[in-house]
Amino acid sequence: MASNQIMFILFAAMIVVFSILTVTSGKILRAAVYLLFVLVSTSGLYFMLNYQFLAAVQLTLYAGGIVVLIIFSILLTSHISQNFESSGWKKNIFSALAALIGAILSIITILDYSFSATTEAAQEVNMKLIGKSLLSVDHDGYVLPFEVISVLLLAAMVAAIVVAKKGAPRKTELSNLNQK
Amino acid sequence: MQYFLILATVMFFAGVYGFLTRRNLITILMSVELILNSVNINFMAFNRYLYPHKLEGMFFSIFVIAVAASEAAVAIAIIINIYRRFTTINVEDVDEMKF
Fold first, then answer.
1. How large is the ipTM?
2. What is the pTM of this model?
């Protein structure tokens, strides 16, 4: 139990520190690397809670996929050591105030509420169970959201390709307009 | 259990702060990822400590991760397109559609 708590404190401290650094860091590439640390320690939390499959998904999809995508687009669109011009102090202060008040209110609510756990025995999570319930049409099955998410992924893939590919005719139209 | 929720709350509001103050489109996208990730932590904590005999939270987290991935892909495609057209990704310079 003690080692569990130490691990939780370690991961929680990492997540809090790096998520605040992610949104305050001046250099954009550093912010992306801090985001990577946040996602990796989140997957550590999932390992701690014994959800190995979700931790692996988190590592490969978030840390491996999304962060690499973000870093690529940063390198494509801005200079590495570029500093942001910071938005006005008024905006900063009011945003910080809003975030702080929201956080304090939710933390007070969380501490007030008494959660009641069930007494049923914990279910062991293994890959066979996950695969069966993802594709079953029974009471505990998730085949409908599974199909919906697959259609969504296909649509997102097609949309990303269509949006990001070179719009050659439009560009010539635009330059023609500019010449006129 | 409560500590997990407090941790997720701090992470969520860090994301909200970043969303409000940042001006670069990519950092706004990163803040959205932080927010989605904190929600996932909430789902997993609820699933483990309140309903350990079921798996609803876990499947919901998987679907949230899938939605976040497709959202990031589409958003980055749009950002690259905007950069190609305006050569900037600062949200205050991209105001051509403003009326």
1. 0.88
2. 0.84
